[in-house]
């Protein structure tokens, strides 16, 4: 996981919205934050910084300031959350006792076919 800091020249809210939408559509992005006063955009996730810059340059001037590995604290927080999620008790419902279960009816599969030989006076064409 990487943390990428980009210098982005965003003139107004519309450009900021377009830039955030473009970056959030990239594969591997986990979080995006923009500081308009300092003209910085922080991205985190498994991303290619060059790909992110090439997409953003369609809308505004963009430069890579910093690329570093994400802090271990974030990973530890995620591990704690996962452990807490595993410790949550799950209610498992038992099936009804056998006396309450529906038993399918037993149908006989026999059927009767009447042939023309049983009624010799009957019409064969019909």
TrEMBL record:
User: Which domain of life, per UniProt?
Assistant: Eukaryota
Listed GO MF terms = metal ion binding
Q: Which residues form the signal peptide?
A: none
Q: Spell out the protein name for this chain.
A: HMA domain-containing protein
Q: Which residues form the HMA domain?
A: 1-68
Its family? Belongs to the HIPP family.
* Keywords attached to this entry: Coiled coil, Lipoprotein, Metal-binding, Methylation, Prenylation
Please indicate if the UniProt record lists Protein biosynthesis as a keyword: no
| Recorded coiled-coil stretches | 64-91
